[in-house]
Amino acid sequence: MADPVKLDILAIAAHPDDTEITCGGTLIKMVQRGRKVGALDLARGEMGTYGTEEDRDAERAEAARVMGLAWRGNLSLPDSAIEYVQENKLKIAQVIRDTRPELVVLPHWEQRHPDHHACSLLGYDACFLAGLKKINLGGEPHRPRKIIYASYYRNLSNSFLVDISDQFEKKCEAVAAYKSQFSDNNIARQIFHPGVTVFELMRDRGASLGHMVGVAYAEAFTIKEQILVDDPQTMPVRSI
Ligand SMILES: [Zn+2]
């Protein structure tokens, strides 16, 4: 794993390509605003039908380059067998201490794939544990200030949307870096619904979310706490 660097934002996901598909546009937007953004993948995707581990390692490096990530790590946990256990919480907590992000992006906890569900729970616990002084981890205690949960296209109760209209094409470019999974002649493109490619899904979902707030494309997130507004008069999105 590459030597960690100090980050502003760390996105944690179970598999290579999860981050790009679910919150890639938002991460690209943050990079464009000068933030240091990193991604941690828990598994290397070796249970996927297509592509070798080496293929997928090269693909996620290329996707990271497209997005402009400052750092990308992978814990090489077993694909499709990521367990919600203390050992894995501590591995993630060590990365949080090493990279010291203010914001962490996790998968939403409602999931079809058990790895995504486990990643959501592990990530939250890791954020907490990383801040404990006496826990058996290297480095200084660090607890991210904010955790947001990326929609994985299942949950509909979003807390807020991010306008990714200007980042949408680059997001698609980052996902396209996963050639073994989503290349033109590959049936694995149709991972969500038969006959629907991941690009069609991102476009449809991104556009329908965008239309709800008056922009071309958006990504959805959930938070567990309330949103504090300073000035209701200037809140974005028209009511009528
Ligand atoms: Zn996944």
Describe the structure.
With 240 residues, the chain is α/β, with parallel strands linked by helices. 37% of the residues lie in helices and 16% in strands. It has 7 helices and 7 strands, in the order E-H-E-H-E-H-E-H-E-E-H-H-H-E. The chain has a 7-stranded mixed sheet with strand order 3-2-1-4-5-7-6, with helices on both faces. The chain starts with 8 loop residues before the first strand and ends in an 18-residue tail after the last strand. The relative contact order is 0.17. The model has no long low-confidence stretch (mean pLDDT 92). Bound molecules: zinc ion. Zinc ion (ZN) binds next to loops.
Helix-strand topology string: EHEHEHEHEEHHHE
Number of H/I helices:
7
Low-confidence sequence ranges: none
Q: How many β-strand stretches?
A: 7
Overall pLDDT confidence? 92
Whole-angstrom Rg: 17 Å
**C-alpha termini separation:** 50 Å
The helicity comes to 25-40%
* Main sheet strand line-up: 3-2-1-4-5-7-6
The biggest sheet amounts to: 7 strands, mixed
**Bound ligand species:** zinc ion
User: What amount of the residues lies in strands?
Assistant: 15-25%
Q: What is the structural class? A: alpha/beta
Shape by Cα distribution: globular
